[in-house]
Amino acid sequence: MSELGIVPLFYHPDIEICKQVLSACYRGGARLLEFTNRGDFAQEVFGELNKFALAELPGMILGVGSITDAGTASLYLQLGANFIVSASLREDIAKVCNRRKVLYSPGCGSLTEIGQAEELGCEIVKLFPGSIYGPGFIKAIKGPQPWTSIMPTGGVSPDYDNLKTWFDAGAYCVGMGSKLMVKDAARNFDIAGIEDLTRKALAMVQEIRGA
Question: 208, 6 in Cβ contact below 8 A?
């Protein structure tokens, strides 16, 4: 997360489409992806996708988002999830992840929640929806708490000005879903487009950070 600066987010019930999208992100330079737990039997799709990544995409790290309880977190940890993300702060999830020494990134919307998350051992907190809070929220938090690492999700797009605003405000990394997972005119995932956009977005982040 620190090195690349971008965490792609994706979900689809079809494992073959998931493999194509994951491979496109990989070819574009991404080395981690958050699979969002948003459909029936999502855990079965993730299990197969993680096996595919281990066999075919060396160095690719898969985690799971949209986790709502400790039981679901435990299920995905058994399937090899390397990090867990939730939309809100859940102490029960933090405990499960800490037992396995797996990163847990909870959604936080106030300085109090961020403090509670850090007390529970969360090293990176998620700001969601980022479009509501905006980069100014991160800048304000980083003033009194420069040690806090914040990942905005929602309201992040793969264009230079948007990314620069977030990183200039102090974002640790950004989560990006639909803006990165582009589709063609027939509403099918544009695999070549996803690969190209991933490559360009990662390059922009490195340029912004270098500047």
Answer: no
In angstroms, the CA 130 to CA 64 distance is 19
Report the C-alpha gap between 28 and 146 in whole angstroms: 31
Cβ atoms of residues 7 and 178 within 8 Å: no
- Give the pLDDT confidence score for residue 211 in this predicted structure: 66
Q: Which two tokens stand for residue 51?
A: 């096996």
pLDDT digits (tens, 9 = 90+) for 18-58: 999 999 999 999 999 999 999 999 999 999 999 999 999 99
Euclidean distance between CA atoms 209 and 123, whole angstroms: 21
Please name the residues in contact with 89: beta carbons below 8 A apart, sequence gap of 6 or more: 106, 107, 108, 113, 116, 117, 120
Distance of CA 180 to the CA centre of its chain: 12
Q: pTM of the entire structure?
A: 0.96
C-alpha distance from residue 150 to each of 64, 127, 145, 161 (Å): 17, 7, 11, 19
What span, in angstroms and rounded, lies between the C-alpha atoms of 205 and 12?
A: 27
Indicate left, alpha or beta for 89 from its phi (over 0: left) and psi (-120 to 50: alpha). Answer: beta
CATH among 3.20.20.70, 3.40.640.10, 1.10.260.40, 3.40.50.920 for 6-210: 3.20.20.70
Please say whether the dihedral angle defined by the alpha carbons of residues 166, 20, 10 and 62, taken in this order, is positive or negative. negative
